Amino acid sequence: MKVKVISRNPDHYQRETKLDLFKVPQFIRDKEDPLQPAVEYTRALNAAKLNRLFAKPFLASFEGHNDAVNVLAKHPLRLNCALSGGRDGQVRVWNLSLRKCSSYVQAHNGPVLGVSVNSSTGDNFATVGMDSQIKFWRLSEFSDGDLGDPIHSVAMDYVPTSINYMYESSDFVTGGQGLSFWKALCDSPFRTYNIGESTVQAVKCNPVETTVFAGCCEDRSIFIFDSREKVPVQKVVMKLRTNNISWNPREPFTFVAANDDYNLYTFDMRSLLSARKVHYGHVGAVLDVDYSPTGREFVSGSIDKSIRIWESNAPTSREIYTVQRMQYVLSVLYTLDNKYILSGSNEFNVRLWKANASEKLGALVPREKAAMDYSNQLRNQYSAHPKVGAILKRRKVPRQIKNLKDEHQIIREKQDRKFANIQAHTKHKIIEKIPNKVANIIESWDKPPLDPEDSKEEEKDGESKDAKTKGISDSKYLKKAAEIDSKEKEKNGESKYAKTKGISDSKYLKKATEKQNVKKFSFDSEAVETFTDRKEKNGKFWRGNKQASFGSGGESFKGKIKKEKRYN
Rounded CA gap, 465 and 463, in Å? Predict the structure, then answer.
């Protein structure tokens, strides 16, 4: 708690002797320069031009793989160490400081599908491949050349598609035909989650909440799990498939999903009914995504042969990286010092990029650092001005990306124009536009449905979950609920259906009996039962012309049914 106290120096207002003159308080301020805004604007314009002039993000290309680089993994305890796995079955360990491969191993007889480093010790890592095996390898700081034989291996009856270690733990999670939670060096999973027939595409563990992890499936769904629970905690189904996800290291409840619809979606784990933010800009399916250590930015790689850097709260990207030789970007990675980006692509290379394209690497003298800080402040202050903003936002991209981007913009404008025309020519009806945060979500639930085994047990016991908590059977529970509903209706004097009409029960019944003889008409706590006047006459069956209500699953349809004849 801070307390501000009035503090004065007596030398500023008291005389030393009575012969001294009285001190007159003065406020000395430099005169404002009338040309300061113009000078700062010119400096901001020059700073923006220099920023784009020195923007050279590409640093190095690492060669050694004989096929496409599928996965990248960072070392949780070493800044200069990264691992890559390719379709040639090799796993290579890269020294980013020396920009060379420090060690390698032929890990699998097929493509490497997942690599993850043990975050508790950092001296070993695990891999999964198309040969249906999980293998564990030693990773010493001084290892050089071939890593040799694995420490331990587990043969599986299905192909695991991904693996990820939990934060500061030797436990890990694998995805494939279902999702499995493993203890260290065990030959069988500690727990397996049944999520249906779909294959788990990728799985990622939360870096803060050590028991939470998420997986995306080929049936377009995203599941959130807790290692302490036996069933998924939450689920959301998208319109198209999600290829990968990444957790925010600073906000443990936030994650971003890379989707096949060219967009990325930022979700809040606490509510999956809608996305928090939609990030658009790619012109191809987004294959991988990774958050920066600060949690303020993330990087994505796409099938459109580009890498984009996004601010976590911005809908569009702040930077795009492309190279003429670079093909599909299959994996991306942010280093732990927030300065570099790694990308693995389809032409066998791992590339090293700067996170800030115009940043000067190496040590800076104080004057140079102060000048760069001043230039950054000027660019941020005048970025909204047309000339400065145009220079800062301009990016030279390949013709294919530019043409597709223009085409997508035309499609979006066409959809907006169509919606405006429909709304303008619809009589006495206001149509609300569904935002993209909700439009691309098909299904979402916070609590999992009941397992078939649990429901069978409840049927055998003859008690429901609510009844068990009350300590009474189903029949008694339903009777008690019916008595409470009837008492509430008697107090209010109105039923649910009558309230919508604005009339009481007695008036409504009189009105119904005046038209026709109603044989069955009852009010329920959830919905109004269907009432019909069925008559059989000379082998014929028809319904009277009356208002009826049909309900199933909470939905109802009310309308006048015309006379209809049916013959046996």
Answer: 7
* Paired tokens of 125: 């890592």
162 within 8 A of 113, measured Cβ to Cβ: yes
Helix or strand run (H / E) with residue 233: none
pTM score:
0.74
Residue 480 and residue 379 share a domain: no
Cβ neighbours of residue 388 closer than 8 Å, sequence gap 6 or more:
41, 44, 45, 48, 379, 382
From 306, 281, 298, 382, select the one nearest 338 (Cα to Cα): 298
Q: Which helix (H) or strand (E) is 237 found in, with range?
A: strand 234-238
d(CA 446, CA 249): 23
Report the sign of the C-alpha dihedral through residues 89, 94, 100, 105, in that order: negative
pLDDT at position 531 is: 33
- State the Cα–Cα distance between residues 110 and 336, nearest whole angstrom: 30
Segment (H or E) for 131: none
Q: Residue 506 phi/psi, 5° resolution?
A: -65, -45
Asked if 300 contacts 308 with a C-beta cutoff of 8 angstroms, the reply is yes
> Do 258 and 348 have their domain in common?
yes
Question: Which pair of tokens denotes residue 444?
Answer: 């979402």
Which structural domain, as residue segments, surrounds residue 479? 463-492
Comparison of pLDDT for 16 and 204, the residue scoring more: 204
Measured distance CA(531)–CA(548) in Å, rounded? 6
Ordered DSSP codes for 476-514: HHHHHHHHHHHHHHHHH---HHHHHHT--HHHHHHHHHH
Cβ-contact 114, 85 below 8 angstroms:
yes
In the chain, the number of structural domains is: 4
Consecutive H or E run containing 298: strand 297-302
Helix residue ranges per DSSP H, 99-238: none
* Residue at 46 is within a domain: no
Q: Which tokens belong to 361?
A: 């690497």
- Count the neighbouring beta carbons within 10 Å of the beta carbon of residue 379: 20
- For residues 426, 430, 435, 438, the Cα torsion angle rounded to the nearest 10 degrees is -110
Q: Which two tokens stand for residue 232?
A: 């998924």
pLDDT digits (tens, 9 = 90+) for 34-53: 889 999 999 999 999 999 99
Adjacency order of strands within the sheet including 172-176: 162-165, 172-176, 178-182, 191-193
More confident residue, 542 or 441: 441
Q: Is-contact 93 102, C-beta < 8 A?
A: yes
Tokens of 24: 């007159």
Query: Same domain for 250 and 293?
Result: yes
Query: Which pLDDT belongs to residue 481?
Result: 54
pLDDT digits over 330-370, tens only?
999 999 999 999 999 999 999 999 999 999 998 999 999 99
